[in-house]
Specification:
Blueprint lengths: L20 H7 L7 E5 L5 E5 L8 H16 L9 H11 L16
Antiparallel strand pairs: 1-2
Length: 109
């Protein structure tokens, strides 16, 4: 009988976790892959690799299609982003620090 491997991971304050390397290898998971959870009546949870959908995100696809049509129909609306605009964006966002381990506020839950 094959050996059973057991691994564990820890939940952050945001209920996130890192999938252990042994699990990623066993499921052949890569970045941005999806995980499918099956919850059995006994409380046992089975993780499998989710099958990727062929169609992708329909909302994103519609939005990108809208942008492509708008650019094709109205190329005169396109504007060059100048260096001053980029500098302004950097000044507005340069001092912002993000801690992904901080708990979410009640509004974000």
């Amino acid at each position: 009988m094959p050996a059973t491997l057991e691994v564990e991971s820890t939940l952050t304050d945001r209920y996130q976790t890192t999938v252990p390397e042994t699990v990623r290898r066993a499921l052949r998971l890569g970045k941005r892959d999806k995980i499918h959870y099956t919850i059995r009546p006994s409380g046992e949870v089975v993780l499998t690799r989710a099958e990727s959908s062929e169609g992708g995100d329909p909302v994103l696809g519609q939005f990108l299609g809208f942008l492509a049509r708008d650019i094709a129909q109205h190329p005169e609306r396109l504007q060059v982003i100048d260096a001053n605009f980029v500098l302004r964006l950097q000044l507005l966002t340069g001092g912002i620090e993000v801690d992904l381990d901080l708990p979410l506020s009640a509004d974000d839950e």
